[in-house]
Amino acid sequence: MTFHIITLFEDAFSSYLGESIIKRAIEDKKIRIKFYNPRDFSDDKWRRVDQKPYGGGPGMVIQALPVVKAIAKATSKISARDKKFTKIIFLSPSGKQFTNEYAKISAKKYKNIIIISGRYEGIDARIKKIFKMEDVSVGPFVLTGGELPAMILIDCIARQVKGVLGSAQSLEESRIASPDVYTRPEVFTFKNKKYCVPKILLSGNHAKIDEWRKGRKK
User: Fold this and answer.
1) Domain boundary at 135, 150, 168, which?
2) Kind and range of the H or E element at 77?
3) Residue 164 shares a structural domain with residue 181
4) What pTM was computed for the model?
5) 97, β-bridge pairs
């Protein structure tokens, strides 16, 4: 699985991708991350890619052509055989709601995912006339840029890739899991009050434990 990220701010990804499970997945070549900065495809000597919006309004809009060239560069890295296993995602607050099921299908169906991460007032919509893409939203809210949503997609889809989590049992959604979890010690004290692990989890009765977990999920 290769994620191709179109973004003006590659450095925004470095700390998250450089830690824990995602870092290990990259090192183990379970996933790959490639970046394409529209500024690198600008004809402007200052590498400028934003202009005022037609029709008026505040803020700036990212020009279409540098983004189109960045997407074209990304697709040029994909073999002809794998192009049919490629999806382009345009991050937008008004897009289709991203879900765990969406991530699961994406991991199963695609080898390359191109994620277009906007900024400012957005990206000139004409890019959608050149490349087939799907508008996707990570939630009913607006952020200052698409970098955080892109990281959410990478994380959620990557954990569905075989071997990334080490064991299929690590996928909480594929087993009976509770939002509440406990570990040692069995009892601890804070400000003279004792806090105990629920007795059912100490019983060894896995059928009853599963029933307890199901109840906690409601």
Assistant:
1) 168
2) none
3) no
4) 0.88
5) 137
Asked if 26 contacts 17 with a C-beta cutoff of 8 angstroms, the reply is yes
Burial of 6 (0-12, 13-18, 19+ CB in 10 A): buried
By residue range, what is the domain housing residue 187?
176-217
Query: For residue 62, what are its two tokens?
Result: 């990212």
Question: What total number of domains does the chain contain?
Answer: 2
Q: Are 137 and 93 spatial neighbours (Cβ–Cβ below 8 Å)?
A: yes
Q: How far is CA 175 from the centre of its chain?
A: 22
Averages of pLDDT over each 10 residues, the chain, 218 residues: 97 95 94 97 92 90 96 95 96 95 96 95 94 96 94 96 75 69 92 94 92 79
CB atoms within 10 A of CB 124: 19
Neighbouring CB atoms inside 10 A of 63's CB total 21
* Same-domain status, 55 and 102: yes
Whether 163 and 189 share a structural domain: no
